[in-house]
Structures are given as C-alpha cells and as structure tokens.
Amino acid sequence: MNALSILRTVASSPLPWVILAGLFVGAAAARASMPTRRRKDPDRARTRKWVVACVLFSIAIVVALLGVFIPGPSKIVDIRLAWAAGIAAVVTFGALRFRKALGIPVLVLLVASAVLLGLFFQSIRAFTGETEIASVRVISVASSSMRLEVSPRTGEPALLTMDGAYFAPIVKVVIFDDLLVFLGARTWYRFEGMTSFDMNLRQGNTDFRFPRPSGISEQLWALFEQNEARIPGVKTVQIEMPSKRAAEFATYGIMVQNDGGVQVVPKSG
User: Fold this and answer.
1) Number of domains composing the chain
2) Which end of the chain, N or C, is more open, meaning fewer C-beta atoms within 10 Å of its C-beta?
3) For residues 40 and 42, what is the distance between their CA atoms, to the nearest angstrom?
4) Do 42 and 12 reside in the same domain of the chain?
5) Which residue range(s) make up the domain with 49?
6) Can you tell me the distance from the alpha carbon of 106 to that of 113, in angstroms, rounded to the nearest whole number?
C-alpha cells in the first residue's frame, strides 16, 4: 500500500479532520487568551494576538468543512467525533497556554497521541492493504466467448479462450483473525486458474488450471482447510471466485485483500 493510498484512506475518514480542526480551535483559544499587558507595546500585541487567533479559527472552520464534504455528510453522525475534537482542542489549549505548568502532563499526552496515531496508521495499512496476484487483459469479446491473457504474479502468462461473458479467478485463501492482520499477517492465497459464466451466471465448460499455481502449496492449503477449527488465529479457509464482465481491450487486476477476500478491479492505463 503506497503513500497515496494511505492518504486517500485517511482523507475518507472524518476522524483526522475533526482532530485537526480541534487542534486549530485550541491553538486559536490559547492565542486569544494570552495576556498582553506586560508587552512593550500592549496595543500592538493585542491586535496581533487577535489577528493570529482569527486566522487559526478560520483554518479550523475550513478544515471542519473539508471533514464534512470530503468523507461525506453521512459519516458526520457519530457523537464520538465531537468528543475527539473537544479533547484535541483542550489538550492543545493547555499545551500552548500553560506550557510551564503543564509541561510533563502535556508531554505524556503528546507521547500517547503519537502512539495512538501510529496505531491508527498501522490499522489502516493492515485492513486496507492488498496484493495484486495477477492481471487479466481482455483481447477480444464475442457474443458468447472471450479471449483473455492472464499474467500471474509469478509464472508464465496464459492465453485463454473461454465461453460466456464473465470471467472469474479461482483463488484458494487462508484468512487470518483481525489481531494477526493488525500485527502484519496477510491473507495466504493459491491462484489456481480461471473459470467463466454466461449472462445468467451459469458456469461454463472452459475452466483453466495453471500447471504450477502461484502462492502456497496445495498440501499446505489442504492442511489448513481440514484443520481450520483447530488452528489458532485462522478465521476461515475458502475458495473465492469473484466474477467480472469482460470489456474488450480492458485490463484488470486480481487483488487479494490483507483481511480476506479477492477482488477483480479495472486497471488504468
């Protein structure tokens, strides 16, 4: 999962936006409450204080609006988001307004926030990551058949002529529990081959099997399948066949998700 994918995932959640807005609100409140009587030029310091406070508060409003429109208004319905924004504002206000008195507590809070932020990004990488195991290029599409070029991640490409309008990869997967996924485990897979379906989703008679499927061995997959209830950390062992209608000259990626499941997605370019 690259940095751009992580950024898109973060932006699609309202939580980072409300926390960032809370930080700016706290900074604005801290700046507005700063005393200016002891400054050399109190009037100028007071004017500068309110200008900076207004700028910070305006940024908070802009960030809050982005948090509504980018993730979508339907996601801003959880009261916990208001608590997150409030806590971020209070912590920031205390850190900037009472830097000497709250030095150690604020430092502890900052360290805890950094740890929680790291766990947040780790959870994003764990549960939204994916691995491309093959690509499928549609060479031609006829009324009841299609010509495909399948290129697995390892191994030689294969040219296939298949009946039907939909193609589907045959992938055997071992899906692990969420805790193991969070700690870095990825779904194990065995890319067996391809199958096809007609317009009524009836399976055709032109299945293709790789002579040397990529991924884990058949023996290892069978071991997990036969003993999945007795192996700690295994959520399920199953066969995935997600179907996709073939579009002429299109290219698709076959993706295995970190937390289970197989998808066929269009590839740009």
Assistant:
1) 2
2) C
3) 6
4) yes
5) 3-126
6) 10
237-264 tens-digit pLDDT: 999 999 999 999 999 999 998 777 899 9
Which stretches of the chain drop beneath a pLDDT of 70? 1-11, 75, 78, 99-110, 112-128, 269
- Backbone conformation region of residue 4, classed left if phi is above 0, alpha if psi is from -120 to 50, else beta: alpha
Residue 1 has what pLDDT?
A: 47
Question: Do residues 124 and 9 make contact, with C-beta atoms less than 8 angstroms apart?
Answer: yes
Whether residue 97 is found in the same domain as residue 139: no
Q: What is the pLDDT of residue 88?
A: 83
Q: Are residues 38 and 119 in the same domain?
A: yes
Q: 141 is written with which tokens? A: 């599409």
Phi, psi angles (nearest 5°) of residue 227: -125, 25
Is there a single domain that holds both residue 22 and residue 52?
yes
- Do residues 197 and 168 make contact, with C-beta atoms less than 8 angstroms apart? yes
- The answer on 110 and 145 residing in a single domain is no
CA–CA dist 221, 219 (Å, integer) = 6
Tokens of 221: 């997959």
Burial class (CB in 10 A: 0-12, 13-18, 19+), 35: exposed
